[in-house]
Amino acid sequence: MAQVGYVRVSSVDQNTARQLDGVSLDKVFEDKVSGATTDRPQLQAMLEYVREGDTINVHSIDRLARSLADLLSLVESLTSKGIAIHFHKEQLHFTGEHSAMQKLMLSMMGSFAEFERSMIKERQREGIAKAKEAGVYKGRVKTVNDDQIRAFIAEGNSYRKAAESLSVSLSTVQRAMKVVA
Protein backbone atom coordinates (compact mmCIF):
# COMPACT_ATOMS: atom_id res chain seq x y z
CA MET A 1 0.00 0.00 0.00
CA ALA A 2 1.97 2.91 -1.37
CA GLN A 3 1.62 6.57 -0.51
CA VAL A 4 1.83 8.26 -3.90
CA GLY A 5 2.11 12.00 -4.50
CA TYR A 6 0.90 13.95 -7.51
CA VAL A 7 2.28 17.47 -7.93
CA ARG A 8 1.44 19.86 -10.77
CA VAL A 9 2.27 23.42 -11.74
CA SER A 10 1.31 25.11 -14.99
CA SER A 11 4.74 26.09 -16.30
CA VAL A 12 8.35 24.94 -16.13
CA ASP A 13 9.54 28.01 -14.20
CA GLN A 14 7.07 27.50 -11.34
CA ASN A 15 8.13 25.85 -8.08
CA THR A 16 6.45 22.73 -6.68
CA ALA A 17 8.16 22.87 -3.25
CA ARG A 18 5.06 24.01 -1.31
CA GLN A 19 2.97 21.10 -2.55
CA LEU A 20 2.98 18.05 -0.27
CA ASP A 21 5.83 19.45 1.79
CA GLY A 22 6.23 17.29 4.89
CA VAL A 23 4.05 14.44 3.61
CA SER A 24 5.80 11.05 3.71
CA LEU A 25 5.52 9.55 0.21
CA ASP A 26 6.84 6.42 -1.46
CA LYS A 27 6.75 7.90 -4.98
CA VAL A 28 6.00 11.33 -6.44
CA PHE A 29 4.79 12.15 -9.95
CA GLU A 30 5.34 15.77 -11.05
CA ASP A 31 3.90 17.56 -14.09
CA LYS A 32 4.81 21.06 -15.21
CA VAL A 33 1.94 21.55 -17.64
CA SER A 34 -1.57 23.00 -17.69
CA GLY A 35 -4.29 21.13 -15.84
CA ALA A 36 -6.78 21.86 -18.61
CA THR A 37 -6.80 18.23 -19.75
CA THR A 38 -5.83 14.88 -18.28
CA ASP A 39 -3.37 14.33 -21.11
CA ARG A 40 -0.34 14.92 -18.89
CA PRO A 41 2.66 12.57 -18.97
CA GLN A 42 3.18 12.16 -15.23
CA LEU A 43 -0.55 11.96 -14.46
CA GLN A 44 -0.85 9.13 -16.97
CA ALA A 45 2.27 7.45 -15.50
CA MET A 46 0.78 7.73 -12.01
CA LEU A 47 -2.53 6.25 -13.16
CA GLU A 48 -0.59 3.28 -14.58
CA TYR A 49 1.48 2.93 -11.39
CA VAL A 50 -1.15 2.98 -8.64
CA ARG A 51 -2.76 -0.23 -7.40
CA GLU A 52 -5.59 -1.22 -5.08
CA GLY A 53 -4.85 -0.11 -1.53
CA ASP A 54 -2.64 2.82 -2.60
CA THR A 55 -3.39 6.40 -1.61
CA ILE A 56 -2.82 9.32 -3.95
CA ASN A 57 -1.90 12.53 -2.14
CA VAL A 58 -2.58 15.83 -3.93
CA HIS A 59 -2.02 19.30 -2.49
CA SER A 60 -5.36 20.63 -3.73
CA ILE A 61 -8.18 19.67 -6.07
CA ASP A 62 -7.13 22.15 -8.77
CA ARG A 63 -3.71 20.44 -8.99
CA LEU A 64 -5.38 17.21 -10.13
CA ALA A 65 -7.92 18.73 -12.54
CA ARG A 66 -9.22 22.11 -13.69
CA SER A 67 -12.33 20.60 -15.25
CA LEU A 68 -15.18 19.33 -13.10
CA ALA A 69 -15.88 16.50 -15.55
CA ASP A 70 -12.22 15.39 -15.49
CA LEU A 71 -12.07 15.62 -11.70
CA LEU A 72 -15.22 13.57 -11.13
CA SER A 73 -14.11 11.01 -13.71
CA LEU A 74 -10.64 10.63 -12.17
CA VAL A 75 -11.92 10.31 -8.62
CA GLU A 76 -14.65 7.83 -9.60
CA SER A 77 -12.27 5.74 -11.71
CA LEU A 78 -9.59 5.57 -9.02
CA THR A 79 -11.86 4.93 -6.04
CA SER A 80 -13.72 2.20 -7.94
CA LYS A 81 -10.34 0.40 -8.19
CA GLY A 82 -9.79 0.65 -4.43
CA ILE A 83 -7.38 3.59 -4.69
CA ALA A 84 -7.92 6.38 -2.16
CA ILE A 85 -7.35 10.07 -2.92
CA HIS A 86 -6.41 12.64 -0.28
CA PHE A 87 -6.66 16.36 -1.08
CA HIS A 88 -4.62 18.02 1.68
CA LYS A 89 -5.63 21.68 1.34
CA GLU A 90 -9.35 20.92 1.32
CA GLN A 91 -8.91 18.11 3.89
CA LEU A 92 -10.96 15.74 1.77
CA HIS A 93 -10.30 12.01 1.58
CA PHE A 94 -12.08 9.78 -0.94
CA THR A 95 -12.08 6.02 -0.56
CA GLY A 96 -15.03 5.00 -2.68
CA GLU A 97 -17.47 5.03 0.20
CA HIS A 98 -20.61 6.85 -0.87
CA SER A 99 -21.01 9.99 1.18
CA ALA A 100 -23.40 12.68 0.00
CA MET A 101 -21.35 15.37 1.78
CA GLN A 102 -18.09 14.26 0.18
CA LYS A 103 -19.68 14.17 -3.27
CA LEU A 104 -21.10 17.67 -2.72
CA MET A 105 -17.73 19.03 -1.55
CA LEU A 106 -15.89 17.46 -4.48
CA SER A 107 -18.38 18.89 -6.96
CA MET A 108 -18.29 22.36 -5.40
CA MET A 109 -14.49 22.52 -5.15
CA GLY A 110 -14.14 21.13 -8.68
CA SER A 111 -16.58 23.76 -9.95
CA PHE A 112 -14.49 26.48 -8.32
CA ALA A 113 -11.33 25.13 -9.98
CA GLU A 114 -13.05 25.10 -13.38
CA PHE A 115 -14.43 28.61 -12.82
CA GLU A 116 -11.00 29.90 -11.82
CA ARG A 117 -9.46 28.47 -15.01
CA SER A 118 -12.12 30.11 -17.18
CA MET A 119 -11.54 33.45 -15.42
CA ILE A 120 -7.79 33.19 -16.02
CA LYS A 121 -8.40 32.54 -19.73
CA GLU A 122 -10.88 35.44 -19.93
CA ARG A 123 -8.40 37.86 -18.30
CA GLN A 124 -5.67 36.62 -20.63
CA ARG A 125 -7.85 37.23 -23.73
CA GLU A 126 -8.77 40.71 -22.46
CA GLY A 127 -5.10 41.53 -21.79
CA ILE A 128 -4.04 40.38 -25.26
CA ALA A 129 -6.84 42.41 -26.89
CA LYS A 130 -5.78 45.56 -24.97
CA ALA A 131 -2.13 45.00 -25.84
CA LYS A 132 -3.02 44.56 -29.52
CA GLU A 133 -5.03 47.82 -29.45
CA ALA A 134 -2.02 49.60 -28.00
CA GLY A 135 0.24 48.02 -30.62
CA VAL A 136 2.30 46.30 -27.94
CA TYR A 137 1.31 42.68 -28.60
CA LYS A 138 2.47 41.25 -31.88
CA GLY A 139 2.08 37.58 -31.08
CA ARG A 140 4.82 35.02 -30.79
CA VAL A 141 7.92 35.61 -32.92
CA LYS A 142 8.14 33.11 -35.77
CA THR A 143 11.06 30.72 -35.52
CA VAL A 144 10.79 29.77 -39.20
CA ASN A 145 9.43 32.05 -41.90
CA ASP A 146 6.95 30.99 -44.57
CA ASP A 147 9.59 31.14 -47.34
CA GLN A 148 11.72 28.57 -45.52
CA ILE A 149 8.72 26.26 -45.21
CA ARG A 150 7.77 26.68 -48.89
CA ALA A 151 11.39 26.01 -49.96
CA PHE A 152 11.47 22.81 -47.90
CA ILE A 153 8.20 21.63 -49.49
CA ALA A 154 9.45 22.60 -52.97
CA GLU A 155 12.34 20.15 -52.46
CA GLY A 156 9.75 17.37 -52.51
CA ASN A 157 9.23 16.94 -48.77
CA SER A 158 5.82 16.21 -47.28
CA TYR A 159 4.02 18.64 -44.99
CA ARG A 160 4.61 16.31 -42.04
CA LYS A 161 8.32 15.96 -42.83
CA ALA A 162 8.60 19.77 -43.10
CA ALA A 163 6.88 20.24 -39.75
CA GLU A 164 9.12 17.69 -38.07
CA SER A 165 12.37 18.90 -39.65
CA LEU A 166 11.70 22.60 -39.06
CA SER A 167 10.30 22.03 -35.53
CA VAL A 168 6.95 23.65 -36.26
CA SER A 169 3.42 22.33 -36.14
CA LEU A 170 1.67 20.78 -39.11
CA SER A 171 -0.86 23.63 -39.03
CA THR A 172 1.99 26.16 -39.37
CA VAL A 173 3.17 24.38 -42.53
CA GLN A 174 -0.40 24.25 -43.89
CA ARG A 175 -0.87 27.98 -43.18
CA ALA A 176 2.39 28.85 -44.96
CA MET A 177 1.39 26.80 -47.98
CA LYS A 178 -2.15 28.22 -48.06
CA VAL A 179 -0.71 31.72 -48.57
CA VAL A 180 0.83 30.53 -51.86
CA ALA A 181 -2.26 28.75 -53.15
TrEMBL record:
Biological process according to GO: DNA integration
PROSITE patterns reported for this sequence: RECOMBINASES_1, RECOMBINASES_3
GO molecular function list: DNA binding; DNA strand exchange activity
Positions of the catalytic residues: S10 (o-(5'-phospho-dna)-serine intermediate)
Domain called Resolvase/invertase-type recombinase catalytic: residue spans: 2-135
Pfam families for the chain: Resolvase (PF00239)
SUPFAM superfamilies, alphabetized: Resolvase-like
Top-rank lineage group of the source organism: Bacteria
Keyword annotations of the record: DNA integration, DNA recombination, DNA-binding
Family: Belongs to the site-specific recombinase resolvase family.
PANTHER family (alphabetical): DNA-INVERTASE FROM LAMBDOID PROPHAGE, RESOLVASE HOMOLOG YNEB
Name the UniProt record assigns to this protein: Recombinase family protein
Record lineage: Bacteria, Pseudomonadati, Pseudomonadota, Gammaproteobacteria, Pseudomonadales
